[in-house]
## 1
Amino acid sequence: MKVIASYNIKGGVGKTAASVNLAFAAAASGRRTLLWDLDPQGASSYYFRVKPKVRGGGRALLGKGTELGRAIKASDWPRLDLIPADFSFRHLDLVLQEAKRPGKRLRKALAPLASEYDLVLLDCPPSVSLLSEGVMSVADRLLVPVIPTSLSLRAYRQLHRLCRDLELPEGLLAPFFSMVDRRRKLHREVAAQFSGRHRELLRSYIPYASVVEQMGPRRAPLLAFAPASEAGRAFRQLWEEVAARCEI
Ligand SMILES: Nc1ncnc2c1ncn2[C@@H]1O[C@H](COP(=O)(O)OP(=O)(O)OP(=O)(O)O)[C@@H](O)[C@H]1O
Ligand SMILES: [Mg+2]
């Protein structure tokens, strides 16, 4: 079982769009997939039409000696399950604070699922917190959507430094460009500058496309209703690249 987190310090960069579409693509290509919506906003749960409610809240999932399995819900798609968000997840840091090592607590919670899933995708909230530190230490890979703008690059550098400070393995970070508008000179310039400096950059990128926003009213991943769109093809390509790099 591989654990991949969709994470960025920055908000609104396409973490959830990547999580739901990669989860969909993984399940469609035969992987037993679990998407864990760790963001109290519950956007992933919303897109998959799963009620953002966990009985007992975050404490029931990550408190001492608790069981993750009972929070799992089936989605409308074969091989794709979800742990929905709960508004109490905003207090997950308090729960993790009680554990000596947040990463260890998360790892322990996920361990019993190892025989049931090929892939666990974590849709993370945008923050630097105990939860994100725990996620970083438990994930095999951090998938980081980066919009090609100066502030996004700055946030990526901060994340890079944080990984070094936490002594996490080289190669943990897998950034990709998100919401790319190739007509904008700034996007082209920033993208070229970044790819020159960061060899870990994935080659697939997600274009800016209004069809992605249709996921809201349709309450489904883009790959479920517009797989042949440019963005749909990009998400599929991203999945294939991630699957190859992470050997899923
Ligand atoms: N490639 C894209 N093209 C156009 N719009 C997009 C694209 N990707 C995401 N969006 C839209 O941008 C908004 C933010 O995307 P998303 O929710 O995936 O980001 P996020 O990083 O998960 O945000 P948050 O930090 O709030 O969790 C959403 O309204 C989404 O529909
Ligand atoms: Mg999100």
## 2
Amino acid sequence: MPRIVRPTAYGTPDVLTVTEVPVPRAAADTVVVEVRAAGVNPVDWKLYSGTFHAVDEDLKESAGVTASLPSLGLECAGVVTEVGSEVSGVRVGDEVIVFPVTEAYADYVTAPASSILPKPAGLGWPEAGSLLLTGTTAAHALHAVAVDAGDTVLLHGGSGGVGLMAVQLAAARGATVIATAAPRNHALLTELGATPVAYGPGLADRVRTAAPQGVDAAADFAGTEEALDVSLELVADRNRIVSLTGPDRRVEAGIKLIGYGPGQDAGTEVRAAARADLVHRAGSGTLRVVVDTVFPLAEAAQAHKAGLAGHAPGKLVLVP
Ligand SMILES: NC(=O)c1ccc[n+]([C@@H]2O[C@H](COP(=O)([O-])OP(=O)(O)OC[C@H]3O[C@@H](n4cnc5c(N)ncnc54)[C@H](OP(=O)(O)O)[C@@H]3O)[C@@H](O)[C@H]2O)c1
């Protein structure tokens, strides 16, 4: 029987349980995909840990909050096994990337046809299954603060899933990229086109040294007090500071907040429009998906414990 991983209660990763379920059937406007890899994202454990920020009622579905206990797995890649009667352009056997979707921590997932993109042949399964949530978020963040050629942009949390995408996308636009990370990740950031800077006390001065020309824009993927303070100190225009997460006082700071919380910009259209470009870049080798660790599906709890530890460079991925 196919398996699915679900939380059986709110709590720690130990509430994750593997259950056997029938193979799902395609509705008229959906396809069924046999999952080969599913990306793990912090939103997954935030949803059942009970510590996730309040989610706007109108945006609950796109944030994955669809049931009394949340479903897990908002992205994956796999092989189409059934095609709904109203779906065109997709065939059984196609290798696809699926985002957004729900319940991708599974052997099979049902996905709306609008969430399916062809997987480039040269892209590995773990990379394909973990490209789009972070990629579209990074594209949205850079869009929100209008990063362009000639800008100097500061990216907090540059070695995380979103950060590594944003580093590469900003560098590809011709921006000068300063990215914060633990020192062990600095070589990776340099390789991807950024000037790495260690976070921690003295960060503002280290960024000034790395960018004597000044900082035009900042994006916070770390969500720390320090990242907010340093962004406010170094970037003159608050419309060019964007945050995905962090302390409540960022609301009063007058910066851009993106995501699914009340009053935040979900960026649905920007994110949807970014998907094809991200797949093209990853397929052509100009955008690298850095996969840190691949776990068997049944070890989802271990993957979440690794994610909660907070320092994996790149993506954690589940493989059925
Ligand atoms: N609003 C949205 O739409 C949206 C979408 C995606 C993600 N998010 C949120 O954005 C955040 C980042 O997501 P992600 O997928 O990139 O997470 P991730 O892959 O777990 O990356 C987190 C990174 O934070 C860095 N970090 C840890 N402590 C730090 C500190 N004190 N200062 C600076 N950096 C620090 C780590 O870097 P080192 O290993 O180098 O220490 C790590 O690589 C999460 O909170 C996630 O929930 C929001």
